[in-house]
């Protein structure tokens, strides 16, 4: 694709999204009013599938929920991904489009992700109608990002990346101003796994700990010593972090219980170390409880790998932003300890996720996964332009 044709395609995307921005805001508000939890996104899937079919996309529903949609022809193919599910969080906003589902809200910005992807799809359809789309685009409207194991693995089992050369995604960033795109080459998020340790023993009286397995003491040892052991057994540069969220044992101060549990998350920054940490955790737990006459059952659920952005994909994103608005609209962002199952796609094909600024300039900074989250809705059109532009630039480079 010649440079002039690429520049014209970017200009078409800009104008196409510009004409649609009010509709995209209304779509986002509709999705926000009707949030659906992981694996329950049926209304959401139908709503988005209808919008895509009207624009000429070939829509293929996925089992349970979510969909894949295809457009274009040629040998090159790029995938764009958005996630569908909401969180079990009460919406604390009082906007006219506040959630109508008690205890469920789009508190992670997935309503913005979906709306931006639909905007990108509309712009790409216009290019296709003009015979100016230099290849194929596949949309991944993925369910269940917020649970482990997430919907990305479910879609991969449906072979959704067959024939795909590159994948792009976006994530709301309420600490970055609307109109600004956050980029990073290399690890963007951490791996995130779920860990539960259950201990069992004979139980007994606290006056005779020597005649029973002191389960509560052993559980406390696991809680405090496992993070310390990992800091010595794992490369400290891997950034392994164990944080407990649940600790339960006993019902009386003078009774040693016969069972107890501690549960939390394991997060790790390095992709290679992530493949090793489960084995180390299991060995360490059994070594820690060995002296105390109790048995340990370790339930380790591998959640998501790190999102690792390859340099070429980030370069395509950066070039898109520069072509649309200039270099002042990108910022470098740090790696986060948050988990994102977009990383599963990157185990199959190269790609990148960018941070979409959602803070109104000069306004309040909100936090994700909180019921009071508010976004600057101008970010929807920004995200749509970047997704569509990156797809075209990727296809032009492939061709």
Outline of the structure:
By secondary structure, the chain is of the alpha/beta class. The chain is 37% helix and 25% strand. It folds into two domains: 3-189 and 306-398, 3-Layer(aba) Sandwich (Aminopeptidase); 191-304, Alpha-Beta Plaits.
Beta strand count: 16
Which H/E pattern describes the elements? HHEEEHEHEEEEEHEEEHEEHEHEH
At CATH level 3, the topology of the largest domain is Aminopeptidase
Number of helix segments?
A: 9
Supply database-style keywords.
Alpha-Beta Plaits, single chain, eight-stranded mixed β-sheet, 399 residues, alpha/beta, Aminopeptidase
Describe this structure in words.
The protein contains nine helices and 16 strands. The protein is an alpha/beta fold and 399 residues long. It has two domains: 3-189 and 306-398, Aminopeptidase (3-Layer(aba) Sandwich), CATH 3.40.630.10; 191-304, Alpha-Beta Plaits (2-Layer Sandwich), CATH 3.30.70. The strands form four sheets. It has an eight-stranded mixed sheet, with helices on both faces. A hairpin with a 5-residue loop joins strand 1 (58-61) and strand 2. It is elongated and about 80 Å long.
Topology:
Blueprint: H1 3-33, H2 42-54, E1 58-61, E2 67-72, E3 77-83, H3 110-129, E4 136-142, H4 151-157, E5 166-177, E6 181-183, E7 186-187, E8 191-200, E9 204-205, H5 215-233, E10 241-249, E11 255-256, E12 259-268, H6 271-289, E13 295-304, E14 308-309, H7 311-324, E15 330-332, H8 342-346, E16 351-359, H9 378-398
Helix pairs in contact: 1-3, 1-9, 3-9, 5-6, 7-9
């Amino acid at each position: 694709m010649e440079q002039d044709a690429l520049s014209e395609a970017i200009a078409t995307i800009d104008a196409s999204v510009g004409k649609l921005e009010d509709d995209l805001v209304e779509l986002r508000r509709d999705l926000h009013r009707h949030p659906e939890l992981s694996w329950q996104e049926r209304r959401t899937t139908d709503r988005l599938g209808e919008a895509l079919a009207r624009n000429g996309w070939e829509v293929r529903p996925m089992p349970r929920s979510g969909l894949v949609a295809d457009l274009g022809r040629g040998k090159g193919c790029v995938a764009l991904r958005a996630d569908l599910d909401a969180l079990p969080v009460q919406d604390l906003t009082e906007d006219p489009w506040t959630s109508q589902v008690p205890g469920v809200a789009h508190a992670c910005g997935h309503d913005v992700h979906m709306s931006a992807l639909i905007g990108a799809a509309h712009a790409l359809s216009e290019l296709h109608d003009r015979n100016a789309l230099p290849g194929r685009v596949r949309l991944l409207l993925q369910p269940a990002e917020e649970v482990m194991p997430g919907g990305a693995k479910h879609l991969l089992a449906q072979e959704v990346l067959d024939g795909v050369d590159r994948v792009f995604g976006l994530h709301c960033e309420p600490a970055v101003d609307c109109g600004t795109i956050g980029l990073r080459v290399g690890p963007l998020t951490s791996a995130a796994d779920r860990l539960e340790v259950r201990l069992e023993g004979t139980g007994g009286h606290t006056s005779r700990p020597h005649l029973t397995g002191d389960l509560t003491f052993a559980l406390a040892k696991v809680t405090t010593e496992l993070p310390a052991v990992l800091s010595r057994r794992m490369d400290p540069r891997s950034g392994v972090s164990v944080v407990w969220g649940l600790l339960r044992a006993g019902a009386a101060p003078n009774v040693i219980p016969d069972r107890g549990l501690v549960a939390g998350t394991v997060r790790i920054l390095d992709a290679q170390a992530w493949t090793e940490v489960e084995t180390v955790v299991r060995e360490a737990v059994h070594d820690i409880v060995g002296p105390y006459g109790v048995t340990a059952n370790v339930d380790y659920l591998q959640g998501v790998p790190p999102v690792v952005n390859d340099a070429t994909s980030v370069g395509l994103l950066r070039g898109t932003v520069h072509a649309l608005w200039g270099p002042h609209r990108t910022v470098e962002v740090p790696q986060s300890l948050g988990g994102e199952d977009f990383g599963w796609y990157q185990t199959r094909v190269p790609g990148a996720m960018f941070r979409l600024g959602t803070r109104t300039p000069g306004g309040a900074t909100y936090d994700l996964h909180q019921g009071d989250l508010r976004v600057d809705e101008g970010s929807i059109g920004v995200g749509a332009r970047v997704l569509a532009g990156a797809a075209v630039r990727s296809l032009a480079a492939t061709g």
